[in-house]
Amino acid sequence: MTDPWVALEPGADPAERTRALRRAHETFTRAGTVPRPVRPVVADSWRRSARAGVAPDRTADVELTDADLGAYRAGHPLSRTMPLIRELVGTFADDGGHLLAVCDAHGRLLWVEGCPATLRAADAMNFVPGSRWSESAVGTNAPGTAVAVDRPVQVFTAEHFARRVQPWTCAAAPVHDPRTGRILGAVDITGGDGLAHPHSLGFVQAVARAVESQLALLEPPPRGDGALELTALGGDEALLRAGGGRRLRLSRRHSEIMVLLARHPEGLGGEELACALYPQETVPPVTLRAELTRLRRVLGPDVLASRPYRLTPPVETDLDLVERRLEAGAIAAAAAAYPGPLLPSSQAPAVIRLRRRTADALRAALIARGDADLLADWAHAPWGEDDLDVWRALAAVRPTPAVRSRLGALERELGLPRQPFAARPRHATSVQRRSP
C-alpha cells in the first residue's frame, strides 16, 4: 500500500506529477473541488488554507528582524539544540543544495541555513528567518503543515498552495517538548524534486526525535516533593507528571476530573463533581463512582481521596501558570505558556466555563497590549483564525495586505460592514476594542 504521507510513490514521473498537480491546483482555486492525484493530506490542507483566506499569490510576511529576531531565537527552547540539528542536517543540506529550516509552533521560521545559491533563491519568496509560514498565513507547506497536523509531512512542488512556492519540495517533522508533549516547532529540509523520496521524510523525523531526546537530557530533574504536574491546555488528553518522573497520558474523562479537582484542592462532593462533569442531569451516581475508581487505579494508591473527592498531593497546572502570568501583567509570557484552549473538545459544563474564561482573559490582554507579534500568533492559531476582534486589533498595528484581506473576508462572512482603521505605530501599547 502506498504511504499517503510520501509525496511520490515508487516509479512515478516527477514532471508528469507536477503537471497533474498544477492542473488540480487551478481546478481547486477556480471551482473549490480537489481532483486526483492530490493526496488527502494535501487536499485537507488546501481546504484549510482556503478557509483561512489565503490567496494563491500570497507571499510570506517577515514579522521579526534584527534584534527582535535575535532575542526571540535566543529564548526559544530549540535554540539549545541548534548545534545538534546543524551536525545532523548541515552536511546533507549543503551537499544536496538544500536548505535547513527550523520554525516555531506558530510556523514562524527561526533559522534558515544551507547552500548560498539556494538561500538567495529562497529570499525571493521570503523563506527567511522571521517570516511566518503557517498554513493560515501562506497555505500548504511542509513546516506549516507539519505543525498543523502534528506529524511528518512532505510537500511536493504544486502541492504547495502558494504558486510562488510551487517550484520547491520540502519535508518537515514536528518537535515536541518531552516534558509536556506540546509542539515546539518543526525541522524542515527544503530544496528540489529529489526530496520527494521516503528517505527525506524518515530523515527529518529521525532528526526531530534526536532533538526531543536532547531536550529530555537538558530538562531539569523531576520534583522530589511529591507534587503532581498537570498539562491540560491545547489538547483533549491531559498529561500528568507524578513522582519519580512518571508520566501518564489520561483519558478525556479522567483529564476533566483532574482539571476540576486541581481547581478545588478543598475537594468536591459527588453531586458537585457530577454537575461539573455531565451536561445531562440524569447521569446516575454509579457512573461517576466507576470513573473515579478507574482513575484511582491509574493514579496509584493515596493520590485520590474521597468524602469529598480530592487530590492529596499538591497539583501544579499549566492553566495556573497562564493565570499567574496574566495577573502579574506578563502578557507575552502568558501567551507563550498558552498552547491552545483547555481540553478543547470537552463538553463538561465546568470545563467549558473555565476554558472560556481563560481564553477571554488572555485575548483581552493581547488586544489591550496591541503587540503585533502576539496578536499575529493568536490570529494565525487554529483557535484565532475566526476571531474578529483580534484580527481588527492586528490590522490596526500591522495593516499588511494579507491581514487586511483576512479581516475583510471575516467581515463579509459575518455580514458586517467594513470598519475603517488607522495604522498605529509598531510599539503601540493599547488598542481600543470595537464592537462589531
CATH architecture of the largest domain: 2-Layer Sandwich
* Overall pLDDT metric: 91
The largest sheet is: 5 strands, antiparallel
How much helicity do the residues have? 40-55%
Terminus-to-terminus distance = 51 Å
Beta-strand residue percentage: 5-15%
Top-tier CATH class of the largest domain: Alpha Beta
Q: What name does the CATH topology of the largest domain carry?
A: Beta-Lactamase
Which blocks of ≥5 consecutive residues have pLDDT under 50? Answer: 423-436
Overall geometric form: globular
The helix-and-strand class reads: alpha+beta
What's the CATH superfamily of the largest domain, by name?
A: GAF domain
Order of secondary-structure elements: HHHHEEHHHEEEHEEEHHHEEEHHHHHH
Number of strands: 11
- How many domains, in number, for the residues? 3
Q: How big is the Rg?
A: 23 Å
- Counting DSSP H or I runs of 4 or more residues, the number of helices is 17
In spatial order, strands of the major sheet run 2-1-5-4-3
